[in-house]
Amino acid sequence: MSKTLIAHFSASGETARLAKTLAGVTGGDLFEIKPQTNYTAADLNWNDSSSRSTLEMKGDKSRPAMAGPADVAQYDVVFVGFPIWWYQAPRIIETFLESCDFSGKTLVPFATSGGSGMGRTVDELRKLCPNADWKAGKMMNGVSDKALADWANAL
What we know:
Elements: E1 4-8, H1 14-26, E2 29-32, H2 52-58, E3 77-83, H3 91-98, E4 106-112, H4 121-128, E5 133-134, E6 138-139, H5 145-154
Parallel strand pairs: 1-2, 1-3, 3-4, 4-5, 4-6
Helix pairs in contact: 1-5
């Protein structure tokens, strides 16, 4: 029997809500990907070219520090949830993926967004963990709990 982890980063709470629902549906454990320094409203102001989130997203090599390490060794399936920032996953997701060995594990990305799609997000994340079995990513904007459960159970 496989063991499931739902790892998620959430700036507004929407991704966290979905992650909690997904944990209930799958029986998986939750892990919040927390930045070492929390984001303030000013940090998240995408209209400000000098805001923390804007600067991180402009820097391909930017890797915000996580508050604590993740232990994924015991898990076979890892859902990775995040909001879409600038048509991709926030850089802290790259920090998370690069901090663990996902070889032989199944990774299932899911995302939320205020208006954009996932673009090439999953293709870019795959490059960070090429030895994982990646499933197609899914946008979860406005998805009902039932639709979320149906999706998770169909994997």
